[in-house]
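From the pipeline queue, job 12 of 40. The input is one protein chain; the requested action is below.

Action: predict structure.
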Amino acid sequence: MTVSGRRSSAFTRLLRHGFTDPSAAERHLQSPHLASLQSSPVLLDALGATADPDLALLGLVRLVEAQPDDEQRRMLLDTLLAGKPLRDRLLGVLGASEALGDHLARHPGDWHALVTYEASDLHPGVEEFEQGLAHATDPVTLRVAYRRCLLSIAARDVCGTTDVAETAAELADLATATLRAAVAIARAAAPEDDALCRLAVIAMGKCGGHELNYVSDVDVIFVAAAADGAEEGKALQAATRLASHMMRICSETTVEGTIWPVDANLRPEGRNGPLVRTLASHLAYYQRWAKTWEFQALLKARPVAGDPELGQEYVDTLAPLVWQAAERDNFVPDVQKMRRRVVDSIPRAELERELKLGPGGLRDVEFAVQLLQLVHGRGDTSLRSGSTLEALNALAAGGYVGRADAAQLDEAYRFLRAMEHRIQLHRLRRTHLVPEDEADLRRLGRSLGLRTEPVTELNKAWRKHSSAVRRLHEKLFYRPLLDAVAQLAPGEIRLSTDAARERLVALGYNDPAAALRHLEALASGVSRKAAIQRTLLPVLLGWFADSADPDAGLLGFRKVSDALGKTPWYLRLLRDEGAAAENLARVLSAGRFAPDLLMRAPEAVALLGDARGLEPRGHAHLEQEILAAVGRADGAEQAVAAARGVRRRELFRIAAADLIRSYGTEEHPAEADPGALVDLVGAAVSDLTAATLAGTLRAVVRQGWGDELPTRFAVIGMGRFGGHELGYGSDADVIFVHEPREGVDEQEATKAAVTVVAEMRRLLEIPSQDPPLLIDTDLRPEGKNGALVRTLKSYEAYYRRWSHVWESQALLRAEPVAGDAELGARFMDLVASLRYPAEGLGEDAVREIRRLKARMETERLPRGADPTLHAKLGRGGLSDVEWTVQLLQLQHGWAEPGLRTTRTRQALAAARAAELISTEDAAVLDEAWVLATRVRNAVMLVRGRAGDTFPSEGRELAAVGRYLGYGPGLVGDLLDDYRRATRRARAVVEELFYGA
């Protein structure tokens, strides 16, 4: 009973001290070597203070058992009990690092490295670490010495003697000493190579920035020069052998494991480039070929080993290029794109646990700080630090970021780095993933001082700091731009006007002075409107910068805000509807067409707050609304003005949906299927045009004749209108047909029909704030020379006697769109035999179509236009594809019902299904047609006026590229891809259409 009670008491005491397996702990404490310490409260208290008491006790048992004799064991245990510094350090390391426990069990004398507790030991530098590695003469002894030094760093870390930044600096200093030792070993192994060259090792990344992890690749670049009298080529070969050997000394696995990989992939040309270059070769590369991210990487370059003079010369020579990087085109988008690419590369299953690269992770802070350094370090040398935390502090001191934001980021970065350190320290493995196992999370939480509910507290703190980083890292760049034009609290340092302009230029603003005026107008004052806009603008500025025309985006936002700023729903929409602000930013900065529509009726911004608000309305819905608006109006002009107002709003809805789906948002990626966007725009604009014509027809008839026109009247859509393929800048291709009502004289009926057509055209083209709708009737019988409107009988007589093959081709796209539905259906019955002639076309008709097409290619292409880049008439463009598809329809439509459609893509798919065209050729034609259609839509969206060729102005061309999915600086790729797609399409056309 007594024994059981004592056992229960001991069990409870161990639980209270943090042991999770008290039974195993009791067995360890009762082992012969620890029997004398079993009842020591000092030992239990010290074990209970560690991250993992069970692991610490197990490590202690292994270390004691590994001592070579009883005298050494007594020395260890006596020192452990008598010396608190050793006790805390040794048990702290054993409780935090299984890997260092393994090292101590293999090298039981290394515990002595933790005994010394003097000032020089508390903050060692490179010199002290070099002394610690001085006796290493080969890779194995170097590893043992390295781990011995690492023991002392880890001890200071887990005991709180050093903070996370000091620990990272010590790890970088130890890496520096290790690289120097490795270079010395490599030189000693090859004295003849050493005599031929001077070799310098430049640390990059975290080692260069003096902020290394416990386990990390050590990034380096090598630079070499010939020794006096040596030939440069032989010197480079010798330096390459030395560098390679040095890398192997550090990286290869031996009986003592490895130290860390030495990674030289940040060198010019990466792994495809030579391992070692001369300084002149480095300079030539960075002057001519280097990408933005390579200058960003050079921020942390620091000479660490080898020839110190050559290393310093390397840094001094390249530094001016680093600080000119922000002047490069697309600098900010390039940096941000690199960050997005890193995030996109993370496996989805690991994204939420990724401490370094995930959203709200360490890399977000580092990228944001480096971006600001590169922009402002040109003129402020105080910002030129390789250390993230030092640079962040300097940015705050100089007013480049807000003090509160910098303090929050500093706290978050330190916490996340501490998590990263403790995760890696456990097994000395390179990882940035937060563990999922409960025991691992418990140890991690306790190692960070979270003792009450370690797992719960850890997750809460991690999410809090990660959220802060996620919220602040973008804002860090944009918020000070507002502070530069706002009233600040006493003691706050503002971004100078010059620095603000510098940052705006880096963001892509052409007119930074105007941008600052807009920001001042939007953000100044104490009104609720100004407060909400101050909150929104940092994020909006980021979205504007992600476009091809940030100036237009900011100006447009100011105009919309001036028009709607006092409207409560507008402010509420931007503040509360997560997507509305981003959608507005995308629309305002993507070109002129959509913003122009919005400025004419800013209340349409409400459509951007609701996903359903961006879904185009169907034909029936549109016609019902327009006819209702026409019915409420007084007079035809007011009625058609109302119809055009609806059309303007719906064009904005369609354009906004198209732009947002083309660009993508933070929540939804860009539409992967460009054909789906083409179909959406074509159908929506065609339905809208049909409804507008129906409303206009109703208004004209009611004004002139009341309820009924003396003749039945139908509008037949032709061309892209009939094919449901209208673009933003398309005219409405139509023909008109009428039929006198019973008892009405044909002349009177025709006069009424002509009057209706003329009045419809006039009303739809009256200058107003709404875009005009141009009616094009050139596809009527006899073209421009023919009657504007005909009776059904007249059409019948004409087509029976005079019809040309081009008119049959044009009628393939015919479809009733407005007016008398029954008359429209009878017209379609009338032309059916022309559209799909029995047994197809004869050889003469095919030759005639080919002749017409060839003539059009030579006569209608505008003078000076590049035939490889003209979307409509150029090589492999719309005309090529459509004429090819239409020839197949004319030849085979009588036998293949699927070909009897007005839509190009549907007809192409039907031809493929009927095996009239191969799957590969159909895909080639479809790709070219979709791309050319999107180019035309893009030109209208960007320039605000229709066009068939790519813009020549750089910013407009870039905006077209962004709409088509090409990032900053990739317009060359866009033009190459367009030419490639249309060249392939033309080859198919030559074969199928011309029979080549």
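Job complete. The two ends are 105 Å apart (CA to CA).
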